[in-house]
Amino acid sequence: MSAGTATVTVAKESTARGRVGWALADSWTMTRRELSHWARQPVQVVVGLVFPVMLLLMFNYLVGGGQGVDGDTTEFLVPGMLALTMAFGLEGTMLAVTQDLGKGVIDRFRSMPMVSGTVLVGRSVADMLQSVAGLAVMMGVGYAIGWRWHNGPAAALGAIGLLLLLRFAMLWVGIQLAMVAGRPEMVQAVQILVWPVGFLSNVFATPESMPGWLGAVVEWNPMSATATAVRDLFGNPGAAGGSWASDHAGLLALVWPLALAALFLPLAVTRFRNLDK
Known about the structure:
Elements: H1 3-40, H2 42-63, H3 73-85, H4 90-103, H5 105-111, H6 118-144, H7 152-181, H8 184-191, H9 194-199, H10 212-219, H11 222-234, H12 244-247, H13 249-273
Helix pairs in contact: 1-2, 1-6, 2-3, 2-6, 3-6, 3-11, 4-7, 4-8, 6-7, 7-8, 7-11, 7-13, 11-13
């Protein structure tokens, strides 16, 4: 290799490392911006943590979740609620994105020498940190009302990983829908589309306790796959099984979120880049 070629190669590698470092620095700046909002608006953070807990307690003690379960209904319900929690709070992300769009904040960011897309990355990192906190609170409350995991710490960490993977995918679905909506007042209408995904699942009842056609739909719901896989990893009671979807829930709990993220993440980034076009 000639000296000139070696110099060009080193220069390209240095440029690539510089771009990665720049992107990481910009992403961390945007993440800190989002985290600073928590300190100024703590009520929203508290509400986001408390709302899933209220639903868990309501379904455990009042409504009677766990229909069709052969075993402890609390141990069936808590993992399902952990999966459902991964869909909660998306309206906060969607509102934040649409408000920034409406106020021209994103336009100002895009006029600065920043790596494109780091605004969305910062938003997603902050959201994932809040999701970790939400999972910790929910698992603590679940433990207090009698839920336990039985397969050791490694399986528990695997279950938490699947839950956060689902959240990551749902987050980018929310970001894309927010940019399609464009205005905060449209978020509520768009958010209505998210709720059927959460409640048309095996979070509260087994597919066997439902009409045949509805049970089949429920079994193929991405949230049902994660809930079933998480129950298996925690060693909690679940559905009777027998269908391909229920017998391969662990595989689907990986494939569904990865497919959603592979579709909606590039769509969101591309739409962000083309806002002015």
